[in-house]
Amino acid sequence: TKTYDYLIVGAGLFGSVFAHEAKQRGKKCLIIDKRSHAGGNVYCENVEGINVHKYGAHIFHTNDKHIWEYVNSFVEFNRYTNSPVAVYKDELYNLPFNMNTFYQLWKVRTPEEAKAKIQSQIDQLNIKEPANLEEQALSLVGTDIYEKLIKGYTEKQWGRPATELPAFIIKRLPVRFTYDNNYFNDKYQGIPIGGYNKLTEALTEGVEIKLNVDFFKNREEWESQADTVVFTGNIDQYYNYQFGQLQYRSLNFEHQTLETDNYQGNAVVNYNEREVPYTRVIEHKHFEFGTQPKTVITKEYPQEWTAEKEPYYPINDTRNNDIYKNYKDLADQESKVIFGGRLAEYKYYDMHQIIGSALKKVKDVFQD
Ligand code: FDA
């Protein structure tokens, strides 16, 4: 018999939730991760007493009461509400697009005035069938919002002019005719008190974890140790790229410690001009109402992805989705390998969705 029931490749949220649930059911698990720490992309590094979101800002939000109660059973959450502000040249705007934004743009004060303003800009453009992202956005929100708050940011994110991006990337652009700067519409939102590591540590309590271990460096050896493999890494790599490589967008994070207790007064400030090379500046302490004497900020630069860089956002165009489908067909035939998580499913997932999908997988596997 094998040493473990499950070898879990990847100590991110998917692997951690699966490990917790399997352990609850009396199963023996080993988690391996190629990084020097557990937690996957929600991992935070402590700098000057501040939890620094090393792989990008993470704000937990969900409408699902069950998932909210599930995460709160491991760690308490604070009342952080995401209310980003956007800088465009020397102007500052509230996000998401709401009455505060419309007042800042046009000095309009009533929903009726704001709606009329947006509609008149849309009517003037007279776009019948949007041929690209620019036309799509213009036909939804008009010229001012598009030029100041969408165009530059989107072009930096994708590394291409908005006129060369497909219209389908933007399906809707939520506009809100109330004075409400809460970015998310979900019922529940917050940050774990003490940081995300508290959540992933609580999930994996009592589970053996080996760090700095790449599954592919010694694949047969690892596979031989467990009855079943739970794989949360890149699915194309699992199958030796036989149908080709799946593409991603990547990000470069530039972290800085500053000798001030408050740099920008908000956790998230977007920079919307094309000319500013980064898209956002994150000031981490504000996620937890920090009162440390110093502060840590992170500038987020979108970049092209190559095999050495972190894969952040899947590019779900037809080419990549077709390639993924081929891998998925192979995965569906496996009886001793379970695939899950953002890399194995080649899909952008928020944290609550990853937890939901891990719990669903657990239900299928253990039939309870
Ligand atoms: P994750 O990537 O966390 O874990 C996979 C693990 O597998 C990694 O630790 C990796 O090292 C390991 N691994 C891979 N290959 C391996 C191998 N060969 N051998 C060993 N180990 C291997 N969500 C949200 O709800 N609110 C938010 O604000 C944000 N913000 C955000 C910002 C940015 C920039 C991104 C890219 C994503 C978000 N998210 C988010 C989404 C969130 O990060 C995501 O839902 C989870 O981290 C996904 O967890 P997984 O376990 O699927 O992957």
UniProtKB/TrEMBL annotation:
Cofactor: FAD
GO CC, one annotated term: cytosol
Superkingdom of this protein's organism: Bacteria
InterPro entries, A to Z: UDP-GALP_mutase, UDP-GalPyranose_mutase_C
Pfam families from the UniProt entry: GLF (PF03275), NAD_binding_8 (PF13450)
Domain UDP-galactopyranose mutase C-terminal stretches: 148-348
Enzymatic class: isomerase
UniProt keyword terms in alphabetical order: FAD, Flavoprotein, Isomerase
Secretion signal, residue range per the UniProt entry: none
EC number, as in UniProt: 5.4.99.9
Protein family according to the UniProt entry: Belongs to the UDP-galactopyranose/dTDP-fucopyranose mutase family.
PANTHER family hit by this protein: UDP-GALACTOPYRANOSE MUTASE
The protein, known as: UDP-galactopyranose mutase
Species name: Mucilaginibacter robiniae
Taxon lineage: Bacteria, Pseudomonadati, Bacteroidota, Sphingobacteriia, Sphingobacteriales
Gene: glf
